[in-house]
Design brief:
Oligomer: single chain
Number of strands: 20
Shape: elongated
Largest sheet: 5 strands, antiparallel
């Protein structure tokens, strides 16, 4: 009965983390460029009380083993990089990636981070930056007299300034891809950083060689589906509940066994 309690307790702990993950998905349902995560589990080790092929009580070779498991444990939170829907904003510095790729941003320590959040702003110096002030990489700076910003599907950035009949080119947006995007480490602020599992960033031009195109005046919203998350939440809650009942049943069986000795 002690083993049953420990096994059921491992299931309760696993479902608690599952609910935590679902809650984070739901909390970010309105977060621009957010990618939902899915909790994955594995069963724990087994006590083998009789191996396959071992002799049974009658001396005949048994066709199956007797194994008792010790519960479940979470092993990963799989990040789902499916395309989110786009929302029209009309803001010239709002950019959505339609397809594969990430924007690169420069961090204060000189390293790079990666994001699907294209809600860019213009700093006092005219640099294109994130909401937290991190500049886009490669750096793009707009002239002081900019009247209109134009971003093509291929990431070419140009501006209209007084006195020029044609738009003036000011830079090129690059996207990066990874061999294993799910291996990126989320660090908050809608940013991801490299890990040993993600592979190195592969830069490229939007709309070419499988990279997504840039949609100006739009934002990619979260790919969280509320109905799916609510179903997952109910399933996790029921699994937590049934594991707690298993603990209660084991406790009642121990009580009965103790009463027999009186």
């Amino acid at each position: 009965m002690i083993r049953a309690m420990q096994t059921a307790a491992s299931g309760m702990k696993a479902q608690q983390l599952n609910v935590d993950n679902i809650a984070n998905n739901l909390a970010n349902v309105n977060t621009t460029g957010f990618k939902k995560a899915r909790m994955e589990f594995q069963d724990l080790f087994y006590q083998q009380m009789r191996g396959i092929g071992g002799p049974g009580s009658t001396g005949i070779v048994a066709p199956a083993s007797v194994q008792i498991g010790y519960g479940a444990t979470p092993v990963s939170t799989q990040r789902m990089f499916t395309q989110g829907e786009t929302q029209q904003t009309g803001n010239a510095t709002d950019l959505a990636i339609m397809g594969d790729g990430f924007f690169r941003v420069q961090m204060p320590d000189g390293t790079e981070a990666y994001t699907r959040d294209g809600s860019f702003k213009v700093s006092a110096e005219g640099r294109v930056v994130t909401s937290d002030g991190y500049p886009l990489s490669p750096d793009i700076t707009l002239p002081d007299d900019t009247k209109e910003v134009l971003v093509g599907a291929d990431g070419a950035v140009s501006v209209r300034v007084p006195g020029d009949a044609e738009p003036r080119s000011v830079g090129q947006i690059e996207l990066v891809r990874f061999m294993n995007s799910a291996g990126l480490t989320a660090q908050g602020q809608n940013l991801f950083v490299l890990s040993g599992a993600s592979g190195d960033p592969v830069p490229g031009t939007p709309s070419t060689q499988g990279y997504g195109r840039i949609a100006q005046g739009q934002l990619e919203v979260s790919n969280v589906e509320i109905v799916d998350e609510m179903i997952n939440l109910i399933t996790a809650q029921r699994a937590y509940e049934i594991n707690s009942k298993a603990i209660k049943a084991a406790d009642e069986m121990m009580t009965m066994a103790n009463d027999l000795a009186r």
